[in-house]
Amino acid sequence: MALRVFICLLLLLSGHSMAALLLTQQQLPYAMQSADGQQQGIALQAVRCAMLRSGQQASIRFISWSRAQRLVETGAADGYFPASRNAQRDSLAQWFGPAAPQQWRWYLRIDSPFNPHAADFVQRARVGAYAGSNMHQWLQDHGYQISVSPPGHDQMLDVLLAGRADAVLAANLAMDELIAARGVQQQVRSVLAQDKPLGLYLSLRFLQQQGPDFASRLQQAMHDCYQAPS
Q1: Is the pLDDT assigned to residue 143 strictly greater than 50?
Q2: pTM of the full predicted structure?
C-alpha cells in the first residue's frame, strides 16, 4: 500500500489526475527499465498505448512478479502485465489482450533424452518454472514433478544448464533472448508446449470505478495497439 500512497502523492503534487497503477517485471523483450528510468518493451508499449487511447493515465512500476499479483489482489495496485490467462486470475481480474505474443516452450539441454510429448514425461522428468508464473501453476495443476521454482525468469536457464532440472517451461521470446545473450544456443533445445499470448490484467475493483464503456474501449484500444507477429 505504501507504493500506492507514494504514487498518489506524486500525482497530486504534479497536478495530474489519478493514474492507474500498473505493475510489471523486468523481462526482455516484454518490459524493461533502464538505470535512468527509461521504460520500453513490446508489451509495455502496447499497454501504455491502449491505456492512453482509452482515456486513462497509467503509471508503470517494476517489481517482482509474485508481489505484483498480490498487490493487485489486495487493492494496492490496479493491474499487472504481461500475463497469460488462467482461471484463478480471471476470478479476480479481467484480461485485456493480446499485448504481446508468447509461446510456452519446453527447454532442455541439447543431449537430453527426454521428450516432453512422451507419455511418461510427466512422471519421470524433473521440471521447473519461475515462482508466481502461470506456467508454474499449470505444472502444479497437471501433476508434473517440479524440482525448481526460482523467483526470476532469467534464472531458469541457470538451473537448466546446472542440471537441477531436466526441462523448464518458459516464455519463448524471453528465454530465446537470454540464450542468445549467454551464447549457449548449441547447449539448449526447445519443444513447443502451447501458444499463450500475453495481456494486461485489471482488477475488478478498478474496472467498477471506471465508466460503463471503459472495458470495451480498452479492449478495442489493445487490439489497435497490438503489434501481431508478421
Answers
A1: yes
A2: 0.77
